[in-house]
Design a protein that fits this description.
single chain, ADP-ribosylglycohydrolase fold, binds magnesium ion
Length: 313
């Protein structure tokens, strides 16, 4: 695909993720709801304020740009300084403890392992991994390696790392499919299944295929999940996208309507949808309400320039 055509997809991905997060945060921890009840939420809100999901996605992007690629120490320090500037973004209990360990000299790739015996299998590294999918979209092996490494800063369990890699690859596949061509869901899922190295994720991707067209949301939640574990949220985000690949709004609303960890699942689904459809597919009213939209778009453009014109840097 021509480089210029990727530019609105980069901003669609990051802005799409932030909006999913900001809107989804209003339903976080609640149960399933009707899709019709989600959309009026935007009208009631004066601004879409994002949470830790977007705050850390911004950190990943800032660090990838500054380091012209992945640098674990730099990324960990970026997380730390962003957290110290805005600790009120709804961080879970784990990351701030890890940041403090890193601040006092613990290496970036061992703090998480020390805090959680065996590592965390939560979705906290998948929720921020979209920029890795954008930057390494043409090299799946490298994408996997960087997704694993960026995950290890806070989530070193195999299921946490694999969830991050699968989410990054879902973004990469969406980015590399022209929004003008209809997305082949079966082909997309086959590629995800091939990419997944962990048996549990391979099984989940197979279940996504069975559920396409399912009307019963309770069944979707039972099979795919809506929780904070990566294994019970990354496949749900991918599914929310694949149900309605042609409509960003429907993807995000559907993800939120499933309840549970709605900010993260809607953010991940919004990232994939935005990477496929581009920023123009996101409703104008939603974009107008997003906090720090200009900064997020500027970051997306700088990340795009890094891939489009690497020799400028
Ligand atoms: Mg959050």
């Amino acid at each position: 695909m021509h480089k210029l055509r990727l530019k609105p997809k980069f901003s669609g991905c990051l802005v799409g993720a932030a909006i999913g997060d900001g809107l989804g945060s209003w339903q976080e921890g609640k149960g399933m709801t009707e899709s019709e009840k989600v959309e009026p939420l935007v009208e009631k809100l004066r601004q879409l304020i994002y949470t830790d999901d977007t705050h850390m996605t911004i950190g990943v992007t800032e660090s990838l740009i500054a380091s012209k690629g992945f640098n674990g120490e730099h990324m960990a320090q970026t997380f730390l300084s962003n957290y110290e500037a805005e600790p009120w973004r709804g961080y879970g209990p784990g990351p701030p403890q890890i940041f403090r360990m890193i601040e006092t000299g613990e290496p970036w790739n061992s703090a998480a392992r020390k805090l959680y015996n065996g590592g965390s299998m939560g979705n906290g590294s998948a929720m921020r991994v979209a920029p890795v999918g954008l930057l390494y979209s043409s090299d799946p092996a490298k994408l996997r390696e960087i997704a694993y490494q960026s995950s290890s800063i806070t989530h070193s369990h195999e299921l946490g790392r694999e969830g991050a890699a699968l989410q990054a690859y879902a973004v990469a596949l969406a980015l590399n499919t022209s929004s003008g061509e209809e997305l082949n869901q079966k082909d997309y899922l086959l590629r995800l299944q091939d990419f997944a190295q962990n048996r549990l994720y391979k099984e989940k991707v197979a279940r996504i295929k069975e559920l396409l067209g399912e009307q019963d949301k309770a069944r979707v939640v039972t099979v795919l999940g809506n929780g904070i574990e990566a294994l019970r949220s990354v496949p749900t985000a991918i599914y929310s996208f694949l149900r309605q690949p042609g409509a960003y709004k429907d993807t995000v609303i559907y993800a939120i309507s499933l309840g549970g960890d709605t900010d993260t699942i809607a953010s991940m689904a919004g990232a994939i949808s935005g990477a496929y459809l581009g920023i123009d597919a996101i409703p104008g009213e939603w974009k107008a309400k997003l906090e720090n939209k200009d900064y997020i778009e500027a970051l997306a453009e700088r990340l795009w320039r890094l891939t489009a014109f690497p020799y400028e840097y």
